[in-house]
Amino acid sequence: MQINEDLIRNVVAQVLAEVGRAPISSNGQNGRARRGYAGRHGVFTCVNEAVAAAREAFEQLSQRTLEDRMRIIGHIRRISIDQCVELGTMEMEETKIGRLEHKIEKLKTLGERSPGVEFLATRKEVFSGDYGLAVIEHGPFGVIGAITPVTHSLPTITGNAVSMIAAGNTVVVNPHPSGRRVAAEGVRRFNEAIHRDVGIDNLICVIAEPTLESAEGIFKHRDINLICVTGGPAVARAALNSGKRAVVAGPGNPPVVVDETADLDRAARCIIRGASYDNNLLCIAEKEVFVVASVFDAMMKAMERAGAVRLNAGEVDKLTRAAIVQVGEGDHKHDVPAKEFLGQDAAVLARAAGKNISDDVELIFGETDGDNPFVPVEQMMPFVPFVRVHDVDEAIAKAKEAEHGFRHTSIIHSNNVRNMTRMGRELDTTLFVKNGPCMASLGLGGEGYLSFSIAGPTGEGVTTPLTFTRERRCSLIEDLYILGKRDPNEVPHESQT
User: Residue 283's domain spans which residues?
Assistant: First the structure.
């Protein structure tokens, strides 16, 4: 009879959870009532419930081994790879920005190359001497609050979840409203597979109907131990003002410099590949190009040979008026990309410029001056302005100005090591690419791992599981110290620590 009662209780609890109520279940060992969220698979409408579920999952995860963490993130990776077409298509249909093949590729590559538990073994510090042993460990923060962008809704959640859970944390995500459905579906699938295998649910929680208020609720919640945001200036400022430790992946406006020593055909292929990837939605993507005058015309011809379509001056002006708009008032008025052109195909932009081109064209470009709004604005659309400059000194100076001090990403095409070195030092960006497309800096066609949270403002760089850990020192004291064979007030020599 007891078995039947337990079965009925579990069924009722699961049904209540599925309709959005937080069930009260009985603890079989001590009879105390506790709130349980198993069966929700991470999808919530209430911030308080989501954080409580993530805290409950964190407490369970804290009792598990590193091997269990590997199994958990293995499910996230497997689903990202096996279901990349379905989930990528779902994201494309919901957000209606970018390119389908790149939505699919991002999920698949994250499953293959996102950093996991193995990164925790890359940094071990041990101090051994007469006074004993001290070990620096990397422990979890607890429950992390995350804000993710529409440009990479599920990929950002996926990469962050792998890193955060590998480090021993759980996460509550407030996705961009325009990508909320694919975010919720991806999170549900991840949690369902993990719960079935490992027995822990809600390691990743998502707000199914995200708002500014729910984001603020996550920022201020007392049980959120760390904030991680990926987005524009406004959300970056909000995270930095939250009063909590924050990992902030802020905006970028990556400039490209092409000097007189560059392989122009190679540079053209790289610019097209990077700037057209997912229709320029990547924050690391090539946004504006500064070319020295002696090779400017040759570079423009190389772009056309590589398959990009050039707009003339009138067409550039027409596109600029359509695709860049002003918002705000008075001193706060500034240029922003028009929403209807964000992440759209090159053919859509070309039609706005009065030009008909093939749907197969990946990128359009044209000559502008440095004052054209396409240069300072992070436009996120597959049109790249090319600016003619006198020499590499002017190119680097203008690149630094266009990058706005974000210190996010910069790119150079050159065979002059001194020019490469000087640009790297002048711009001091988190990512610096030489003679390649932007994606190479994230392991797509280059070396390294893949993560879509690039923390420039707070300095962590391309995030890994170590980003989401806190240091703790564990000390074992030698008997010599306890027995007084050494003066306890003696400061040990540096070689003894």
Answer: 255-445
Distance (Å, rounded) from C-alpha 88 to C-alpha 86? Answer: 6
CA dihedral 307, 312, 314, 317 (to 10 degrees): 60
Look up the pTM and report it: 0.86
CATH number of the domain at 351, please.
3.40.309.10
Q: Does residue 302 sit in the same domain as residue 235?
A: no
Instruction: For residue 455, give the nearest of 443, 470, 466, 445 by alpha carbon.
Output: 466
Is the Cβ–Cβ distance between 208 and 187 less than 8 Å?
no
Domain-embedded: residue 238: yes
Does 11 fall in a domain? no
Q: Tokens 């198993």, residue?
A: 38
Residue 276 has pLDDT above 60, yes or no: yes
Q: List the structure tokens of 396.
A: 């680097």
* 450/194 Cα distance (integer angstroms): 22
Q: Express each pLDDT in 419-447 by its tens digit.
A: 999 999 999 999 999 999 999 999 887 88
Are the C-beta atoms of 410 and 432 separated by less than 8 Å? yes
- What is the chain's mean pLDDT, rounded? 89
* 50 and 171 housed in the same domain: yes
Shared domain check, 177 and 77: yes
Segment 291-334, tens digit of pLDDT? 999 999 999 999 999 999 999 999 999 999 999 998 888 777 88
Angle CA(191)–CA(75)–CA(218) in degrees, nearest 5? 40
Structure confidence at residue 485 (pLDDT): 57
In angstroms, the Cα distances linking 487 to 131, 194, 496 are 11, 53, 14
pLDDT-based confidence at 187, cuts 50/70/90?
A: very high
Residues 398 and 291 in one domain: yes
> In total, how many domains does the chain have?
2
Are 310 and 242 part of one and the same domain? no
Q: Do 186 and 288 have their domain in common?
A: no
State how far the Cα of 308 lies from the Cα of 327, in Å rounded to an integer.
Answer: 31
The confidence score (pLDDT) of residue 311 equals 98
Q: Is residue 493 part of a domain?
A: no
